[in-house]
Amino acid sequence: MAKLELSEKRINTAKKAEEYYNALRTNIQLSGDELKVIALSSVRPGEGKSTTSTNIAWAFARAGYKTLLIDADIRNSVMSGVFKSREKITGLTDYLSGTKDLSHGLCETNVENLFVIQSGPISPNPTALLQSEKFEAMIETLRKYFDYIIVDTAPIGVVIDAAIIVQKCDASILVAEASSTRRKEIQKAKFQLEQTGTPFLGVILNKYNVHLDKYGSYGNYGNYGKNKKK
Questions:
Q1: What residues have CB less than 8 Å from 140, skipping those under 6 apart?
Q2: Nearest CA among 45, 48, 44, 66 for reference residue 57
Q3: Cα(39)–Cα(181) distance, rounded to whole angstroms?
Q4: How far apart, in Å, are the Cα atoms of 96 and each of 14, 119, 196?
Q5: Distance between CA atoms of 19 and 38, rounded to whole angstroms?
């Protein structure tokens, strides 16, 4: 099994906000014992969704739960830069496209109880991969071996991927950046997640500044993930 390393800088950052993420972990657990596979999405890129996913997974692992973090933002992953490895790592798209076995993509980390599946190479047809029976079967297999699975998805306000993934999970959470995401955008994203039929646990307000109470606007993200090269 390959091993990934979470940098000391990121670990120290998570420790500084440990109480906050422990509270989020506890709230997830209090939402129901049957909720083990949790998907996180956002309205737009850059709201801190992947950082929040990583730190929630870290909080579960630190509490002694065998935890898996899946990077399912296969169009435009930023988590690939969070965990480092000295060897080539098999990713989610490798497995879903049938080129690699799942065992090759399941990685240990330098955080006890925390395992990771990275996104893998960008696919020319990510929606088809996520809609495949193979993805659903993968989730059902993995839930047998882990106490909690945190799934980082693409922004639901940009592409349909998150809605597809959420249908295979036990619950969803929306991450929104304070003072940037408009209320109507959050409400629309919330509605989209609820329409999947999977329980919606709530909104995590990220990057909150107590001195700001108005919402801003975003630029154009219509080409999300299309022009990125790996």
A1: none
A2: 66
A3: 20
A4: 31, 10, 22
A5: 20
Sequential DSSP letters for 83-100: EE-SS----HHHHHTTSS
Give residue 124's identity as a one-letter amino acid code: P
The partner residues of 67 in beta bridges, in order of sequence, read 114, 148
Angstrom CA distances, 69 to 36, 106, 157, 194, 217, stand at: 12, 10, 22, 22, 30
Contacts of 27 (CB under 8 A, 6+ apart): 201, 202
Edge-first strand listing for the sheet containing 171-177:
83-84, 3-6, 107-109, 114-117, 67-71, 148-152, 37-42, 171-177, 200-206
Decide: 84 and 7 in contact? Cβ < 8 Å. Answer: yes
Q: Which residues of the chain have pLDDT under 50?
A: 210-222, 229-230
